[in-house]
Amino acid sequence: MRAAAQLPLPPDFRAGDILAFHARDREALAEQVGPATLRKGLWWRGQPVCLQVDFSPGQAQVQWQLADRDPALAAQAAQDILPLVRRMLGLAQDVAAFEARFADHPLLGPVLQRQAGLRVPVAGTPFEALAWAIMGQQISVAAAVSLRRRLIVAADLRHDSGLYCHPHADQVLALGLERLRAAGLSQAKAQSLHAVAEGVQSGALPLDAWAAAPQLPAAQIAQALLAIKGIGPWTVSYTLLRGFGWLDGSLHGDVVVRRGIAQLQQADVDQVRAQAWLAPFAPWRALVAAHLWAMQAVNA
């Protein structure tokens, strides 16, 4: 069953940022990216969905394909998919207020001018973002991409189109620790991911409900995640950013963020100095981090 709808986009929308985020895995198992198109496999309400977003100036054409032909399920998809896509595209992020507030900042202002309209791409689900954050701890992006790919293949959730879907908590629990280890996760990462999946299944970590809340309970989410062994402040801030679109996590523990601050200040920066430098940018500290990532990607 196919359906489609249109989403208006702001004039300064940067579709390239969204496409680049989903093009990290060159094997394109779960995401396929074209010049102005994103196709992504999603696991939604117990079934695979093929999501396609076609970007053009001022709008995005959103299409989704369900395997199930139940009219009630199709109606539910119409209610769920568009808010999900809006979150993925960062359309609720108040980047205009941020850019206006810091346009005259002596160091960050010129960066904002060059990167006007930058929004943070968000993962398909909060669980997907949290899994990525756990797998990406203290390793390179390339290594994290490889782990993610192997996890997706191990779960083997596929849409009829051939796209794989990122596993949700139930599928991670079904894999078990042994198969998570066989997919390349370290013992510590496998245990953390398994514990998160248990929390989602038990209701202790209602990630999707938190994402749908009128006001994100960021402090509650952070407290719940920090109680899990192997999850620290960086993982929490990254998950809040990539899973929920929350823009105020302090990513001072991120090596690339510290490198960006050092580049702006022309001085060495440790975690303490990075945290202090980011503090005045609240409630947009994570958005600053995204600008620092983008700044260095352009200069690479």
UniProtKB/TrEMBL annotation:
Any one Gene Ontology molecular-function term assigned to this protein's record: DNA-3-methyladenine glycosylase activity
GO BP annotation list: base-excision repair, AP site formation; DNA alkylation repair
Segments forming domain HhH-GPD: 135-297
Any single Gene Ontology cellular-component annotation: cytoplasm
Pfam (any one): AlkA_N
Highest rank taxon of the organism: Bacteria
UniProt domain DNA-3-methyladenine glycosylase AlkA N-terminal: residue ranges: 4-125
Catalytic activity: Hydrolysis of alkylated DNA, releasing 3-methyladenine, 3-methylguanine, 7-methylguanine and 7-methyladenine
UniProt name for this protein: DNA-3-methyladenine glycosylase II
Organism: Acidovorax cavernicola
